[in-house]
Design brief:
The structure is a single chain. This protein is of the alpha+beta class. Helices cover 30% and strands 39% of the residues. It is built from 4 helices and 7 strands, in the order βααβββαβαββ. This is N-acetyltransferase.
C-alpha cells in the first residue's frame, strides 16, 4: 500500500461511528473518556485527519496545535487489518506535509519503538502512572 493510493480526509467528523470506533483504539478504553475526546475534536481547534482508500477509513491522526508549525500528536490509530504496513508512517508524513515541523507525543512503552523507528527523539518521563512508564517522543523536521 503506497501513499498515492490513499486519500487524505481532513477534519474527520468526531461523531461519525467509524471515526469513533477507530479513535477508540487510541483513546483510553473508557466510554466516558472517549466521549470527552470526541467532544474536544468537535469543538476545539484540534485537528483530526484520516487516510482512506476505496474501502473506507484506514487510519487517523489527531493533532493539538501548540504554536505555528508545532503540534502535539494526541491520538493515532490504524485499523487492525492494516497495521504493520507503513500506515502510521504515512500519517506522520502527512502531518509533516501539512506544515507541522515540530511534532511531539507522549506515549507508553508499547508505542515508543514505533516513534523511535520514525526518527523521533525519545525521553523517559518516568512512572507517571502507577506501574506505567511514559515517554516523550519529539520530531523536528531537518
Amino acid at each position: 500500500m503506497t501513499l498515492h493510493t490513499l486519500n487524505l480526509r481532513p477534519r474527520l467528523d468526531a461523531r461519525d461511528p467509524v471515526t469513533v470506533s477507530l479513535l477508540g483504539l487510541a483513546a483510553y478504553p473508557d466510554p466516558q473518556r472517549l466521549e470527552q475526546v470526541c467532544q474536544r475534536y468537535a469543538s476545539e481547534d484540534w485537528a483530526l485527519w484520516g487516510l482512506e482508500d476505496e474501502a473506507g477509513l484506514l487510519g487517523l491522526i489527531g493533532l493539538r496545535p501548540l504554536s505555528p508549525g508545532q503540534a502535539e500528536i494526541t491520538h493515532m490509530a490504524v485499523q487492525p487489518g492494516t497495521q504493520r504496513r507503513g500506515m502510521g508512517r504515512q500519517l506522520l508524513a502527512l502531518a509533516a506535509a501539512q506544515g507541522w515541523t515540530d511534532l511531539s507525543a507522549e506515549t507508553d512503552a508499547q508505542a515508543v519503538d514505533f516513534y523511535r523507528a520514525c526518527g523521533f527523539a525519545i525521553t523517559s518521563l518516568g512512572e507517571r502512572y502507577p506501574g506505567t512508564e511514559r515517554f516523550l517522543c519529539r520530531w523536528t523536521q531537518p
